[in-house]
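To: structure subgroup
Subject: Chain for Friday's discussion

All,

I'm putting the inputs and outputs inline so they're searchable in the archive.
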Amino acid sequence: MDSLLTASRITKQYPGTLALDNVQLDLKAGEVHAIIGENGAGKSTFMKILAGVVIPDSGQITLNGQPISPSTPGEALSLGIATVHQELSLIPTLSVAENIFPGRLPTNMFGMVRYGALFKQAQQVLSELDVAVDSRISVEQLSIANQQLVEIAKAISLDCKILILDEPTSALTDHESDRLLAFLKRLANEGVSILYISHKLKEIFMSADRVTVLRDGKYIGTHVISEVEPDDVIRMMVGRELGNIYPDKSTRVTQSRLLEVQNLRLPDSPISNNFYLQEGEILGFAGLIGSGRSELAHALFGAAPRASGNITLNGRRVQIKSPRDAIRLGLGYLTEDRKQAGLFLEMSLKENMSATVLDKVSQASVMMPSKQRVLAHEYVQRLSISASSIEQEVRRLSGGNQQKVLVAKWLAIQPHILIVDEPTRGIDVGAKKEIHHLLRELAQNGVGVIIISSELSEILGMSDRVLVMREGAIVAEYSGEDATEENIIRSASSH
C-alpha cells in the first residue's frame, strides 16, 4: 500500500526545549495509524505541524508525493487534513448544529440561515456517529463527553482525506469509546486515513493497523500492531520496564465510616441514593455517560444543588452548601476538566498550588510569597513535577504535569476525603502509574478516596469496592471476585 502522507526529518525548537528532533512518519491510505508516547514526547507538536497550527523549523511533508507546507489550519483543511484537538474549540452559546457547520451554514437566496436544513444535516452526521444529542440545543448544555463527540462530528462533516484525532476518547466511557472506534474503522474502510493519538493502549491494540512511538521528541520506531505486544510498546515509550501500573489493594480499610450519605437526591430527580465510604478505602463509581456519577459528586461537594440528603462525616451530621464548606470539612474534589474548571492556566505552579489554602499562605489577609514557595517546592518534589521553576505558567506544562499540579492543589488541604473525577484523563502511562500509586498511598494513610472513571480497567485496578450508577441511581455494588467487567457493564446498561 502506497503512502498517502509522509513526514521526514521534522524538527521544532522552542526556547529551552527541542520539541521534535528529526521525527518521521508515513501514513497509508485507509489505515488507522496510532502515535503514542509519554507526555512531552512531542505527539501534539507533531500533530499541530501536520494541521498547520505550528510551522516546523526544518523537515519535509509530502501528500500524494507532492511537497506541502500548511501554515494555517485553513490551508490544511483545503488539502483534506482535518484535526480534532484535545482542547475543544466549540462555541458554548451556539447550537450543536452551528458548531458542526461553522462558516458553512445553509442559507437561502437572501442570505438567511435555513435552520431546518441545518438541523437536519447536523442530525444526520450525529446519527452516523450514533450520538444521541439534539442538534438544536446549545453546546453549553452538553456534558464534556458529548461535547467531545460534537467536535469529532464537526471534523467528519468536512469530508476529509486525513483525520487527525488527539485523545478523542479521553472523556468517553469504554462503551462510548468502542462505538467511536468502530466508526473510525468504517471511515478507514471507506478510504479515510486516520492519525490517532492516544494514551490508551487497549484502544490502540483494538483499532490501529500500525503504531509509531515517540520519546523525548525523537522517533523511536513504527510497528505493525499485530507484531508487537503492549509491554513492547510501553518499553519503547518510557525506555525502561514500567512494572504494574496498579498498586496492590488496600490493607488499611477499616469498618470505620468516614462518610455516610443518606437519601441524596438531585433536583428534578425522583431517585434518592445512599452510600458510605470507609477509612482507608478507594471507592469506585462506574457507569455510562449521563449515569449521574459526576452530578452526584458535585452535589456531595456542594458544587451543585441537591434536592435532599443527609451527609455524615465521622459520625457527625454536617451541612455542605458550597465547596468552601466542603474544603473546611476536609473534602477535596479533583475535577474531570482540569483546563476549564481545575487550574488557572495563565498562573504559575506556585499560585495554583496555594489556591485552595490561601489562609495558610497569607498573614492578616496579605499573601506571603515565602510560604507559597515552600508549599510549591514541597509538592513539586513529592509528585516529581517536571517544570523549569515554580514560577512557570501551568499552561506550558505537559498534560501529565498539569494533572499533578491539580492533585497538589487538593493535597495541600490535607484532605480526609478526596474525590477524583477522571484522575488520569489524557495523561501517559508513566504519569498514570504515579497517580495511581499516590492515591493508594493516601488510602493507606487513612484518607477515603472516591474515584470516578470512564476506564473500567482503572475502576477495577484501583477500587476496593465499586458502586455502579444508571440514570442517576446507584444500582449495584461489587467487591472482591464479584467486581468484574461483565458484572459492571451489565449493571450499567439499561435493561
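Points worth raising on Friday:
The two ends are 45 Å apart (CA to CA).
The chain has two domains: 3-238, 257-492.

D.
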